[in-house]
Structures are given as C-alpha cells and as structure tokens.
Amino acid sequence: MKLYVATRAPNPRRVTMFMAEKGIHDIESVNVDLHSGEHRSDAFMAMRPFAKVPALQLGDGRVLSEARAICVYLEGLYPTPNLMGAGGTERAFIEMADRQDDLYLFASVANCIRHTHPGLAELEVRQFADFGAAQGDRVLGVARHFDVLLASRKFVTMERFTIAGITLLCALDFAKGPMKFRPAEQGLQHMQAWRDRIAARPSASA
Amino acid sequence: MKLYVATRAPNPRRVTMFMAEKGIHDIESVNVDLHSGEHRSDAFMAMRPFAKVPALQLGDGRVLSEARAICVYLEGLYPTPNLMGAGGTERAFIEMADRQDDLYLFASVANCIRHTHPGLAELEVRQFADFGAAQGDRVLGVARHFDVLLASRKFVTMERFTIAGITLLCALDFAKGPMKFRPAEQGLQHMQAWRDRIAARPSASA
After folding, report:
1. What gap in Å lies between CA B172 and CA B182, rounded to an integer?
2. Which residues of B touch A137 (CB under 8 A)?
3. Which of A140, A199, B149, B184 could make an S-S bridge to B192, C-beta 3.0–4.6 Å?
4. Is residue A200 part of a domain?
5. Domain-located, residue A42
6. Does the distance separating the beta carbons of A50 and B145 come in below 8 Å?
7. pTM: predicted TM-score of the whole model, two decimal places
C-alpha cells in the first residue's frame, strides 16, 4: 500500500496520526507537492479525480480517498487500539463527535484560511474574503461550544482517545498556523488544556 | 426512540429514506418547525446544542445527531438490508462515496441555497451572495464528475444500493427546489437517468 500525503496539510495528518496511534509503520508514504500543483497533474488526477490528499492506494490498485474513509479501512485491518468504536452504538456516537469536529470546526477553519490567506490564493480558484472572515467568527463560536464540553470531560467522547480527538487536534493546529487561533488567547482554557494534553501524545508529532 | 425531523429539510430526509429502505416503522417522528425557529428554542437546544435536525433521542435519553451517525446506529440495530457495508473494506469504500456526495455536492448545494435564496435569509445569519453563486458553479462541476461515473455503472458504489445513493438523491432533490438544478437541462443524462431510477424507489417518497 502507498499513502499519498502532503507536508503540513491537515487532512493527511489525520491519517498519519491515526496510523501512529495504532503503531502502523509498514505503509509507504509518498509526498505530493501541492504548491507546484502536483495534485492537479494528469498522473495524480487519474488516480484521484478530486485532486486531494490523502489517498491510499491498495495492493490491488484500488484507491481509497477521504481521510475518514481511509481510517475506516485501517481500523478494519488493525483493530487495536480501537479508535472508531466497537459495535453500532459506540461507532455512531464517535462518528457524531467526529463529524461535529469536521463539519463545524475543521470546515470553518479551512474556509476561513482558503478565503482569506494570500498564500492560498493559488490553491483556491476564487477567494471571498468577507465570507472567509465570517467563517473565522464561526470558528470562535464552535470553539466556545467545545470549551464548555471539555470543562467536564477529559476526552471529546467515550471517555477514551478516539478518532474524534485526532480530528479536533488537527483542526485546532490548522487554525493555529495561518489563522493564529489559540484557544487560551480567546479565554478558552479547557480547550487549550485539552489541546496541550493531546498534542503531547507521540502520535501528534508523527 | 424519537426522531426529530423537519418537513422538506434535506438532512432529515437522509434518515427517513434510510429507515424506509430497512422497513423501520416503529420510531416516532416529531416535526420541528424551522421557520418559526423552534430549533433555536431552549427546549430543543438543551437537547441539541448545534440547533440542527435530524436528532434521534434514544430510549435512555441520550441524543444522537448528524444524519450519517444516526444511520450508523440504525444499521447496527437493523442490519438488513445492509446499506453501509459489511466488513472494513466495504464500509470504507461506501463511506468514501458517501462523503464525496456529502462534502462536494450536498455541501455546495446547501451553501449556494443558504447564501443566495431570499427565503433562507432568516435561517442564515449573514448571506454572501457572490460566494453562494460560486458554490452553485461548483455544484455543476461536481455533478459533471458524477455524470461520467454513472455512465458506466448502475449504482454510485458497490454495485448495489447503499447510503451513498440516499445522500446523492437527497442532494440532487435539494438542488432541484431552490436552485432549480436539473441534471438533464445541464446535459447530464446519465445522472438524470440515475436520479429518476432511484427516485422511483418507494423509500424516496417516505
């Protein structure tokens, strides 16, 4: 198998952190250079028509994409430690938390950065700066919700570390770069404490 | 169990169509009136802080939200017919297809409508019409991709009807209303034929 990633891109990080938590070290990693447009090359798009990383090429040639779907596949191959739920009920509650991280926080961070950051003008076909700024405000609103949640619990869900923690950390660290968003500076101490605790896991620097 | 839905809203439809495919008829359905702001009432927000439908209240009082997470739970309780994959590999490929329907098509349709339709000004805090219009162009681009895909296959994935078909139909029918988007009018005959075939399933009118 080959995993296509891109240095410092937040979505591939979700998969590499997931693999590190499971101790998976036998999958070859191939870097795709987004700034030179390698993801839009004929070779890459033949494999991955939406021109996005990460993508996992299986031994039989099939290509799996979308960070979370790749994790579902790896969870099946490497079930321990369980990061996505054992049984329908756990799987459902973890997916709910993961989707909330993803659709409400991660997507708003991505929209804000893509539509406001000069360095990303080349990756985004057209930037809408006012929309991007409003998405930045939304990030703060959603982060406040998570801060309240994390005031009374150690983990995002299930009282243990799961994929939902990976997605939340990757979203927060993505916001830390171009948006310079730091929970503590917004008075979100519980979220900052959670972030610092999770960022200390070896998988976070994988 | 109680399922909170809203008449004509596309995300609750994903769950009601999923339930109809499985023949689930024993879950009470409660309508939430979005136009009078019932989803922002204290009572609803205490249960569902993100103020969104659908939400499934379980027998023990816990509340599960996010359409796809609710489907994961129901798939566990009612495994037949399988709509989300048997085993890690099938689950991963179905989730990839479902996320592509959801993140690339459904989300662009929703962004276009929320940011351009006068009737939704009251639901969207601030509308960005130029961003919304660009998202409408994106819908067409993604729809073209699906049209190519559906030229050579009867189903979105796995050669059978899955949750990915539900999400794609709900996205297309959402676009048909306020956006007046019809695949055939854009020259997307394969997508139109697929849509008409799936819309004829009894679950589509559930």
Report:
1. 8
2. none
3. B184
4. yes
5. yes
6. yes
7. 0.95
